[in-house]
Structure to design on (543 residues):
């Protein structure tokens, strides 16, 4: 056995030699443990070859105490995988603190419990390199494996189900010592409701050499009652080194309880989400929608480009948002930030809607796995908001901006020292026209004058109606030589016959003023008004 170790495994035939074993483990310190994770000396067969050297023995709990808590679950997983896969190398990486320095290390397990002359799980640990100290975290219950070995049991059974060999945490699982089970049938500790399933699987496996089945069942302990275990049974009756049915079981009761609590919480969430009169969704860290209640589907279904989808679940978030709004909700969980962009404190992105102000980034933990949100149809509110905005900032008859907007624009330009020219226009004889031909004709005149003023000036210039028959135009970057031409164009546009009002002719008095340094709002408007009244007096004098 010192020259060649030959094994036949359920997954196929695998041959180990001491050289290949040493190559797999990596030359250097190695250790052994029995099936209960107790430290063992390195077997003589392994010490006979150079390349492996015994590593100082230590308790499992001592080793786990140096491992970063967030990596302990990975080591527990690797141990279970090793027990379940005899002869197959199992690797795991973890971080370990030694002498105040954190190291990343790689661990290699090989289950050689069934190999005569070895009879142990052989493993090695090698340094990958020094790493930065992991971030401090408060690990929630279930987030980290404890410092104890996972509770498991290995049994060899004959064709009748009688125990031939038993090791592991038998006392913790069944309340008896391993030797007390030898020669006894293995069905009695199993919950009565699970026994029929176990017998059925057992009979199937007897006819399938090399086959493997995994079951979830309950085992009884005299003090603690029934607990859940996951059991993997492999038919190795034809393996000359084993000649038994191999059963590996490990405790999953805590995991089952947590999963049950999660399912209960999920049911409560779904019940609440379906009952409340709000469209609710849940998305994963990548933004994919994983749950949506009926009201969400109804709301989202109103968007044209989603009507072809059978349901919103599984749809990417940016496909739920319409057109230009696909960038308004951005998930950046990988960078510890969730950015919600939308109106006010929620995302109001929807079909045919302009984005509002950005919401500041909300800092969230990097470990977040889901986002729960709600969608509300605020179309009516947005329409009302826009209507109120228009009423507050525009002239309802002509649609031009009103005095409030005029004052805001001029004050902003004066603060920024922008060169502006203010043109004031007053319609001559408008009151008499209104009295003689009626308000209807007067309204038509005002509407047409507003249209002509907008057509005369540039798109960036502001045209306002500040009352009655008074109009004010604010123009930017107009040279002194161009002001008179601009005034003449405005006058000509107003004085053309107004066909919409029966061909009526209207005249206008117009004045302009350029904003100067140290001017304020009222100074600029006053000078424009004075220039307009000067023009009105000159026109009356000519008559």
């Amino acid at each position: 056995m010192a020259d060649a170790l030959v094994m036949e495994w359920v997954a196929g035939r695998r041959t180990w030699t001491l050289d290949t074993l040493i190559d797999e483990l990596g030359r250097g310190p190695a250790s052994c443990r029995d099936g209960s994770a107790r430290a063992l000396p390195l077997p003589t067969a392994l010490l006979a070859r150079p390349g492996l050297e015994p590593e100082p023995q230590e308790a499992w709990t001592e080793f786990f105490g140096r491992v970063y808590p967030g990596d302990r679950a990975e080591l527990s997983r690797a141990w279970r995988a090793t027990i379940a896969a005899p002869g197959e190398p199992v690797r795991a990486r973890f971080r370990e603190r030694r002498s105040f320095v954190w190291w990343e290390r790689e661990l290699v397990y090989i289950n050689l419990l069934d190999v005569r002359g070895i009879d142990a799980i052989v493993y090695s640990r090698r340094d990958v390199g020094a790493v930065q100290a992991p971030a401090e975290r408060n690990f929630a219950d279930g987030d980290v494996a404890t410092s104890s070995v996972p509770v498991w049991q290995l049994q060899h059974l004959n064709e009748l189900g009688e125990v031939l060999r038993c090791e592991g945490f038998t006392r913790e699982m069944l309340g008896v010592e391993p030797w007390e089970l030898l020669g006894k049938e293995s069905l009695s500790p199993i919950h009565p409701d699970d026994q029929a399933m176990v017998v059925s699987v057992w009979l199937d496996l007897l006819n399938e050499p090399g086959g493997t089945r995994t079951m979830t069942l309950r085992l009884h302990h005299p003090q603690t009652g029934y607990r859940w275990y996951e059991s993997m049974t492999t038919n190795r009756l034809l393996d000359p080194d084993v000649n038994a049915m191999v059963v590996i079981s490990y405790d999953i009761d805590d995991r089952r309880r947590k999963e049950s609590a999660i399912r209960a919480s999920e049911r409560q969430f779904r019940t609440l989400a379906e009952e409340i009169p709000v469209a609710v969704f849940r998305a994963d860290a990548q933004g994919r929608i994983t749950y949506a209640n009926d009201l969400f589907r109804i709301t989202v279904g109103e968007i044209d480009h989603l009507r072809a989808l059978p349901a919103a679940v599984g749809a990417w978030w940016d496909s739920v948002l319409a057109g230009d709004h696909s960038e308004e909700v951005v998930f950046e969980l990988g960078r510890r930030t969730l950015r919600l962009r939308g109106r006010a404190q929620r995302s109001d992105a929807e079909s045919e809607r302009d984005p509002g102000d950005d919401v500041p980034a909300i800092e969230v933990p990097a470990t977040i796995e889901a986002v729960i949100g709600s969608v509300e149809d605020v179309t009516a509110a947005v329409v009302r908001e826009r209507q109120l905005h228009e009423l507050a900032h525009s002239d309802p008859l002509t649609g031009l901006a009103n005095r409030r907007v005029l004052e805001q624009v001029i004050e902003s330009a004066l603060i920024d020292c922008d060169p502006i020219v203010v043109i004031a226009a007053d319609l001559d004889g408008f009151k008499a026209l209104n009295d003689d031909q009626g308000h209807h004709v007067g309204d038509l005149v005002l509407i047409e004058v507003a249209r002509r003023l907008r057509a005369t000036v540039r798109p960036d210039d502001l045209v306002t109606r500040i009352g009655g028959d008074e109009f004010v135009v604010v123009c930017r970057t107009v040279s002194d030589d161009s002001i008179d031409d601009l005034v003449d164009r405005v006058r000509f546009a107003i004085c053309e016959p107004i066909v919409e009002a029966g061909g009526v002719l209207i005249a206008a008095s117009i004045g302009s003023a350029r904003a100067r340094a140290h001017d304020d709002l009222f100074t600029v408007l006053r000078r424009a008004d004075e220039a307009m009244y000067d023009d009105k007096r000159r026109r009356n004098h000519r008559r």
